Amino acid sequence: MKDKHKRKHADKQPDAAPANGALKHGDLPSPLPDEAKSQQIGKDVNYDKELARLQVELVKLQEWVRVEGLRVVILFEGRDAAGKGGAIKRITESLNPRVCRVVALGTPTEREKTQWYFQRYVPHLPAAGEMVLFDRSWYNRAGVERVMGFCTDAQYQEFMQSCPEFERMLQRSGIRLVKYWFSVSDEEQERRFQDRMKNPTKRWKLSPMDLESRKHWADYSRAKDEMFAITDTKNSPWFVVNAENKKCARLNVIQHLLSQFVYRDLTPAPLELPKLEKSKYVRPPIQEQNFIPLVYR
């Protein structure tokens, strides 16, 4: 069965690795699929206007999820600095945080390390009418933990065997599961790392582990390919996002996410603002309140 999965993905492999073991184009196939049919940002479509249009559709989807009591889980995985966080931000910034929330778990505690591996993720799964976006997920075990030696071979093999069944359990319970892998070349990743190091507002995004990952580029590629061979299933496929251009990736992933659901526009009708009723109440002197300094006017 494993060999069958490997043959299935043989056509999706990136260009052959150079002599130094680094993949020439990272995880990106060449040429890119559907490139000829794409709309060019700045020429055929305005990024800000298209993003605004798609965000209105996301609000419609959110209302459909809420009213119909759907449970939705969306996984965002991929290379460091591939743009997962930026895409998540554009998806959620117009949505109700009570309906759509983001889960980004930190390093497991000593107690969590002794639990069933999937246990720390289960409490964050959605109830009826909720969408949960995982900024990295249980696939850490097949990626960073595997490459950096944070799990044993036995733990890794157990995960690879259990993960497809775990996801089938989620789906049998009624959860809609969508998995995205953000793909970026080594050259573009380096450019973004350099930008983060120079920009004090982005420097927090870099960790020693991110920098260490640069030494293991080919190892991460191998780990990703092995993960896809087992977990890219018919019922729970991986959707790969070409993330070389951040703006394109954001629009493409939102457009694709919307296409995964059949929904109707259930956004509430415009409300009529009632007239403000002013009573004869006399308020205390405004000077008694502590106002912040007007540094900007």
Structural write-up:
With 297 residues, the chain is an alpha/beta fold. It has a single domain (2-288), classed as P-loop containing nucleotide triphosphate hydrolases (Rossmann fold, 3-Layer(aba) Sandwich). It contains nine helices and five strands; from the N terminus they run ααβαββααβαααβα. The chain has a five-stranded parallel β-sheet with strand order 2-3-1-4-5, with helices on both faces. It is globular and about 75 Å long. Mean pLDDT is 88; it is low at 1-26.
Q: What structural category characterises the helix and strand content?
A: alpha/beta
Oligomeric organization of the protein chains:
single chain
Continuous helix count:
9
Could you tell me the CATH topology label: Rossmann fold
- Strand adjacency order, main sheet: 2-3-1-4-5
- Contiguous low-pLDDT stretches (5 residues minimum) are 1-26
User: What is the class in the CATH system?
Assistant: Alpha Beta
Report the average pLDDT across residues.
88
> What gap, in angstroms, lies between the N and C termini?
67 Å
**Helix fraction bin:** 25-40%
Number of domains: 1
Could you tell me the strand content as a percent range? Answer: 5-15%
Order of helices and strands: HHEHEEHHEHHHEH
The CATH homologous superfamily is termed P-loop containing nucleotide triphosphate hydrolases
The CATH architecture can be named as: 3-Layer(aba) Sandwich
Main sheet specs: 5 strands, parallel
Approximate shape? globular
